[in-house]
Amino acid sequence: MFYSLLRPALFMLDAERAHGLALAALKALPLGGTARCDGPLATNVAGIVFPNPLGMAAGFDKDAEVPDALLGVGFGFAEVGSITPLPQPGNPRPRLFRLAEDRAVINRMGFNNGGAEPAIARLARRHGRPGVVGINIGANKDSADRQADYASLARLMAPLASYLAVNVSSPNTPGLRALQDEGALAALLDAVIEARGDYRVPIFLKVAPDLEPSDIDAIARIALEKRLGALIVSNTTISRPPLKSALAGEAGGLSGAPLKQLALERLRDFRAATGGQVPLIGVGGISDAEDAWQRIRAGASLVQLYSAMAYDGPGIARTITRGLERLMRRDGFASIAEAVGTE
After folding, report:
1. pTM higher than 0.85
2. Sign, CA torsion 220/300/171/166
3. What is the pLDDT of residue 306?
4. Which helix (H) or strand (E) holds 264?
5. Which of 134, 199, 183, 184 is nearest to 163 (CA)?
6. Which helix or strand (DSSP H or E) is residue 231 part of?
7. Which of 89-98, 179-188, 189-198, 278-287 has the weakest average pLDDT?
8. Contact 255, 105 (CB under 8 A)
9. How far apart are CA 2 and CA 85, in angstroms?
């Protein structure tokens, strides 16, 4: 209710400035407890117990400033980043656009973040606190060796992460999506797995929705061969479904409601390609409990959102988790795990 009153004023601001205010507001919150890991929505994925299946996707908390605040408002897990080894400013502003008529967002941020060193300091300070915090890692735009960037971050972040998410699917770093090619991806993941060392944190891979069937099959084979903890399906899209907003022509990745169908189709594709043997995290266009439940029934063990919070505020986490519990019981399931892939 409060956010619905505040939203018109926030939407008068530049989207990136409003995002900064949202981070500041979360920093000001007293740290609350995390959800119970023995509650009705708790689920185990890749050996991690998630108190509920709803997470905050990467991109919201790029510099690992508010993971505990996100857990405190009801998310079952928070994924921080993408973090790159060195600080980088990202692409020129403006680079974040609300498409209010479409309940969508276009961004061309370009992995803007403060780099690994300050993020490590923040994560080290919260290390040992309860709660699932994944770390999304990426490569610097001007890196001469992107594989080395990912390996370096895996070595640095593994001691601090519940899981590592390898992001090779952002459309806003030139050439990054080429790392989804079979040979390059296999070599990259080998380097990350080796760099992880004795810290056996699960490796998740975040993929694009704009993939051909042959790409999906190749990524699925690699995920099985490398025993990845999960596939995150999917990142933003460079495609443009019909949109109403005058900002529809802005360059960058599209997220929010218009991505829903494409992301759902990709989830089903990866479910089929992996034979259900690799856990999937459904992302893209999720804005209510019905969306999240549909993604779970289609094969997602976990779900994430980001853009919907810009439209509905931080209360969305508890609204969706309450709705998921109701839908789970309505359909006769005793747990989230029982419902995965039962559409």
Report:
1. yes
2. negative
3. 97
4. helix 260-274
5. 134
6. strand 230-233
7. 179-188
8. yes
9. 38
Distances (CA, A) of 63 to 25, 118, 121, 159: 15, 8, 10, 17
> What structural domains and CATH numbers belong to the chain?
2-339 (3.20.20.70)
Task: Please say whether the beta carbons of 152 and 195 come within 8 A.
Answer: yes
**168 secondary structure, DSSP code:** -
Q: How far apart are CA 259 and CA 44, in angstroms?
A: 27
Q: Given the DSSP bridges, would you call strands 253-256 and 104-107 parallel, antiparallel or unpaired?
A: antiparallel
**How far from each other are the two terminal CA atoms of the chain, in whole angstroms?**
33
Of residues 82, 232, 109, 105, the one with CA closest to residue 172: 109
**Rounded CA separation 106/96 (Å):** 6
Catalytic residues: 170
* Residue 1, pLDDT above cutoff 70: no
Rounded to an integer, what distance in angstroms lies between the CA atom of residue 146 and that of residue 144? 6
pLDDT (tens digit per residue) in 8-45: 888 999 999 999 999 999 999 887 666 667 789 999 99
Is the per-residue pLDDT at 310 higher than 80? yes
Please give the Cα distance from 270 to 234 (Å, whole number): 10
Cβ count within 10 A of residue 324: 24
Count Cβ atoms within 10 A of the Cβ of residue 337 and give its class: 0-12 exposed, 13-18 middle, 19 or more buried.
middle
What backbone torsions phi and psi does residue 194 show, to the nearest 5 degrees?
-65, -45
Produce one character per residue of 58-79: b if its CB has 16 or more CB atoms within 10 Å, e if not.
bbbbbbbbbbbbbbbbbbbbbb
- Mean pLDDT within 146-175: 95
Angle between helix 289-297 and 260-274 (nearest 10): 20
What angle is formed at CA 310 by the lines to CA 294 and CA 287, rounded to 5 degrees?
Answer: 10
Structure tokens at 13: 């601001």
CA distance 73 to 226: 34
